[in-house]
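Chain A, query sequence.
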Amino acid sequence: MSISNALEDKPRYVLVTAAYNEEKDIEKTLHSVVSQSLLPLKWVVVSDGSTDSTDEIVRRYANNHDFIHLHRIVERHVRNFGAQVAAIKAGYEILRPLEFDYFANLDADISFEPEYYEKLLKKFQDDPQLGLGGGLICEEKAGVFRSRPSNRETSVAHAVQLFRRHCYEMIGGYQQLPYGGPDWVAEVSVRQKGWNVRTFKDLPVHHHRPTGSVGGMYRGCYRLGLLDYSVGCHPVFEVGRCMRRIGQKPVITGALVRLWSFIWASVSRHSRSVPDDFVRYLRSEQLQRMRFRKKT
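Chain A, predicted structure.
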């Protein structure tokens, strides 16, 4: 029996993709979605002021597939870490009136197998407490796609985060944060509300443009330190995380920059980007992880 026949009631899911000048990779994503054994109810591709052929590529697919909708943002705005979240929120508002069960963010440089979403949604049906799930991010190295070193079973990459709708709306959706990290805050909020979060190793997805640090490695590490402080990372956890990275060449100095910016933000008493109850919950999780490492 096929997976489709096994599903008594096919779940209804919708997608949003925030795209900015993605002509190099977005067709891989488009092809992956239109090839799905279980198609989305609607897919809004939000072109955030793209100046290349991104829009033309999306329109070509939209002409042949009614569930694809291109939404252009033409107003000028600062291109910062909040811009992508704003684009996703714009796409979600278009979808909100529809009757759907699941919402997924999908980056414009991702590809996956034809049964990816059907298999993923089956896992949600099997676990009523699963609020956020996604596949395993794999990136190319020496011509072979391998699991990204930072992958964890209890953390879902932003590029493929799929939420139960009730869960997504319960946490208030993605938040616009000054130093990025909306996916991180979202998944911690999901657990804080009592839902499960899981990445599934048997659902690999290919990430065709590995994440880099805009403006260089040191600028990126400096931002990460500010991000860690702004969401309330426990100081002991932050020191331990940076110390572990110091032994991993060639990012020794990058880890020190990240730790220095965290300390500087702490001493300067920068404002937090999240409420106090979130900080308490995140720190309790981090302390628990540290205790687990000591036991193992």
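Confidence is low (pLDDT under 50) at residues 1-7. The first helix runs from residue 3 to 6.
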